[in-house]
Write a structure and sequence with these properties.
The protein is mainly alpha-helical. It is built from four helices and no strands. It has a domain of 76 residues.
Length: 141
């Protein structure tokens, strides 16, 4: 019974790991070049990226390690529901921290853009998503 509950809980965790609504890594995509960043804005974007990069790498490593711990706990011959529950809680906390950090990154980067640049970026992103959706639909045919 405990195992079924934990499996159900684990299946919901990827939903929690999704980036916040409206956040995507435009700063690492070709879209960055299409919104006419000034040299100063580009420097700011690069500095902000560097500031967050190490923390995000560490957080992703924590998530991966915790996922491995959960695998080990689930595959242990003597299953311990308490250990599994604690590991799931650690995983949820780690993923929540990634969401908080990515949200702060997105906020800092959005503050660098003008309203016009933000509007153009949203327009370009919508067009990009439409192209991806059409390509996926064509691929499924």
């Amino acid at each position: 019974m405990y195992r079924l509950i934990l499996i159900a809980a684990l299946s919901l965790i990827p939903v929690c790991a999704q980036p916040p609504r409206g956040a995507w890594n435009w700063w690492d995509s070709p879209l960055r070049n299409d919104i006419n960043l000034t040299p100063q804005q580009l420097r700011q974007v690069q500095l902000i990226q560097r500031e967050f990069r190490g923390k995000l790498i560490d957080l992703h490593a924590t998530v991966q390690k915790t996922e491995l711990d959960i695998d080990d706990i689930f595959n242990d011959e003597t299953f311990d529901a308490r250990k599994a529950t604690e590991a799931v809680a650690r995983l949820a906390d780690a993923r929540a921290e990634i969401i908080r950090t990515v949200s702060q990154l997105a906020i800092r980067l959005r503050a660098v853009l003008t309203n016009e640049q933000w509007s153009e970026l949203k327009r370009l992103r919508a067009a990009q998503l439409e192209k991806e959706k059409a390509a996926k639909a064509a691929q499924q045919r």
